[in-house]
Amino acid sequence: MSKITTLSEFIIERQADFPYASGDLSRLLSDIGIASKIVNQQVNKAGLGDILGAQGSTNVQGEDQQKLDVYADETFIRAFRNGGMVCGIGSEENDKYVAFEKPLCKKGKYVVLFDPLDGSSNIDVNVSIGTIFSIFRRTSSVGDRADVNDFLQKGVKQVAAGYVIYGSSTMLVYTTGYGVNGFTLEPSIGEYCLSHPNMKIPEDGQVYSINEGHLNSMGEGVKAYVDYCKASDAKSNRPYSARYIGSLVADFHRNLIKGGIYIYPATKKAPEGKLRLLYECSPLAFIVEQAGGKASDGYRRIMEIQPSELHQRVPYFIGSTNMVEKAEAFMRKFEPVEA
Ligand code: AHG
Ligand code: MN
Ligand code: MN
After folding, report:
1. Ligand 1 pocket residues where CB is under 6 Å
2. pTM of the full structure
3. Which end of the chain is more exposed for a tag (fewer CB within 10 A), N or C?
4. Residue 210, pLDDT above cutoff 60
5. What are the structural domains, with CATH classification, of the chain?
């Protein structure tokens, strides 16, 4: 049998690469791994018991909260508060950022922004969902209460980012800026095991992922790019295939492995796009860049956008470098003025 490396072993091995590191980030990543296993247990039995369906509440963005959204949110927050490495969190399910009051937490060096359950409208139909997280070093002083500026940081400032996909198997994929590594949860031992070392996204792909049902309410650049994806051309292997799961994590994960582009552009209903910069777009942008791919809003690198609000939305183009660059060229040509 070949040697198995568990997530905990891997995190400890990597810590040795940073001789001055205190180990806090390693502990935080381990805490995320543990919290995700607790969420995974509930996701796995979502068809049983009282965990399916709507909570009967909406979040600040007016979206229906599913019971599992709330469960996952509470589970991760508990893990961060108890772990003591984090001074505060920002989450899709909470209107405002939460500054932890515990003295141990106030000494925490990091903040975490996260989407506790991504694709949660897919829970009831047994389709893959995920968790996305983004970790920053705080900008406020250690020992103080976390403040809003700790959360409104550009993607380039991330120290780590990752996602968990609760799919046909459960995987955790993360980066600390030294490549991307993927771990598969081995249920019999309850451990994440390194299964996808040093992940790289193909430079080109043959898959485009967009909610094409809303094409009529999208701009001319996106429409022209989708036409391009569908046009026959043997040399560039077109037409491409359309694949859209409706869970960003699952669509992104497939494209990361096989090559492809995911687009959630501005629409008439969502003029800024639908996806949130801080806990959906930025973390996956960090991962895709570390894997050799690209993420933009059609014009600018996602990682360089300065956020001004916790739940800020942004149009999103992410995936294989050549595909994103092609889509950007269509945007420049057909939607030259950036709103
Ligand atoms: P969330 O469940 O965290 O609110 O995110 C849903 C997002 C994302 O996962 C997905 O790609 C997108 O919404 C789908 O939106 P449409 O149904 O508008 O295509
Ligand atoms: Mn989401
Ligand atoms: Mn969500």
Report:
1. 63, 92, 115, 118-121, 211, 246-248, 274
2. 0.95
3. N
4. yes
5. 7-196 (3.30.540.10), 207-334 (3.40.190.80)
